[in-house]
């Protein structure tokens, strides 16, 4: 069975017949959901079931549920989480609880992958679109907190996706709109921004950053073979690596070209989130079939999915709220 090297979105809260037919034919590795796809728990459970039924397999379904400004499941049906940077005082235990709570909510509606944790360092110059999502200002703090959240997600049966490799924190531009350039010496980056990703190189999945690092050339890291080689060979990351959303303004070229260039550079998977059916078709065509090496890494990622234990969500929430309340300055 050939799998397309893509994670694709869909247009609305119901799987339409033409979308189902396309997904059956293209057989993308997985799906991504956004706020436009979500109404309430019952509807969302039907949608995730329908997506898997269209492919005839237990395909992974992802979402952005970081907490704070990037949170697709929201009140009144789901818990509202603080921005990551506002619970730093709760430390690793707080982020572990955060991940475990999110996993319980996600698994209840058929979602088993989360585009989190965000392991980018918070710098004074970090763009506002990202800064509140960061888990600390030092490599050690970020590695500890991101690792704890990833483990909480895994314990709950949800695959974490660490992002944004090789490190987006020093960018002063929003990559949704333009291509950031981070002109910092490699030695400085190795000691700071790169360090959390090296420390967490055992995680099953990662997402690239649409940034330019001049010491690696003038290509966005998502499409830069030297950047992908650094992640694999220098950092030892052996999990599956996906692109950030190829529809973002940082990238140029057609969607098909963007997908093809990302895979050619070394991304195992292409992520395309927001488009119409023709756009998702173009992404699938550009991505092509998973290579044998990419398939092996993707299979290993799926094997990391655990059977979640039943938890007392209210108890977890009370424990997290107590840690947050005990933060210095609370």
Automatic annotation (TrEMBL):
GO biological process, one term: carbohydrate metabolic process
Keyword Transmembrane helix: no
GO MF assignments: beta-N-acetylhexosaminidase activity
E.C. code: 3.2.1.52
Enzymatic reactions: Hydrolysis of terminal non-reducing N-acetyl-D-hexosamine residues in N-acetyl-beta-D-hexosaminides
SUPFAM superfamilies (UniProt xref): (Trans)glycosidases
Assigned keywords, A-Z: Glycosidase, Hydrolase
Residue ranges constituting the Glycoside hydrolase family 3 N-terminal domain according to the UniProt record: 30-280
Pfam families, per database record: Glyco_hydro_3 (PF00933)
InterPro entries in the record: GH, Glyco_hydro_3_N, Glyco_hydro_3_N_sf, NagZ_Beta-hexosaminidase
Enzyme class, first EC level, given as a word: hydrolase
Cited PANTHER family: BETA-HEXOSAMINIDASE (PTHR30480:SF13), BETA-HEXOSAMINIDASE-RELATED (PTHR30480)
Family: Belongs to the glycosyl hydrolase 3 family.
Protein name per Swiss-Prot or TrEMBL: beta-N-acetylhexosaminidase
Native source organism of the sequence: Falsigemmobacter faecalis
């Amino acid at each position: 069975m050939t799998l397309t090297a893509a994670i694709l979105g869909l247009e609305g809260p119901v799987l339409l017949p033409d979308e189902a037919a396309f997904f059956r034919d293209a057989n993308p590795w997985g799906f991504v959901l956004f706020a436009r796809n979500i109404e309430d728990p019952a509807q969302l459970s039907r949608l995730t079931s329908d997506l898997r039924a269209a492919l005839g397999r237990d395909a992974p379904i992802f979402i952005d549920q970081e907490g704070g400004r990037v949170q697709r499941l929201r009140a009144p049906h789901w818990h509202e989480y603080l921005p990551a940077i506002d619970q730093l005082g709760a430390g690793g235990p707080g982020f572990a609880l955060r991940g475990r709570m999110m996993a319980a909510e996600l698994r209840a509606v058929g979602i088993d992958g989360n585009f989190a944790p965000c392991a980018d360092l918070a710098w004074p110059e970090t763009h506002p679109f990202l800064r509140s999502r960061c888990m600390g200002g030092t490599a050690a703090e970020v590695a500890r907190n991101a690792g704890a959240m990833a483990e909480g997600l895994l314990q709950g049966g949800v695959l974490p996706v660490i992002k944004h490799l090789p490190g987006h924190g020093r960018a002063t531009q929003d990559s949704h709109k333009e291509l950031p350039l981070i002109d910092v010496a490699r030695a400085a980056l190795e000691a700071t921004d790169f360090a959390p990703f090296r420390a967490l190189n055992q995680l099953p999945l990662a997402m690239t950053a649409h940034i330019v690092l001049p010491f690696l050339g003038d290509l966005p890291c998502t499409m830069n073979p030297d950047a992908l080689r650094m992640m694999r060979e220098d950092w030892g990351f052996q999990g599956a690596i996906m692109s950030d959303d190829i529809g973002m303004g940082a990238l140029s070229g057609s969607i098909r070209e963007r997908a093809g260039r990302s895979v050619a550079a070394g991304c195992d998977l292409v992520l395309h989130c927001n488009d119409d059916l023709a756009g998702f078709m173009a992404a699938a065509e550009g991505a092509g079939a998973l290579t044998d090496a990419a398939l092996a890494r993707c299979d290993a990622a799926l094997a990391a999915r655990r059977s979640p234990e039943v938890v007392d969500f209210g108890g977890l929430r009370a424990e997290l709220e107590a840690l947050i309340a005990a933060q210095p300055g609370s």
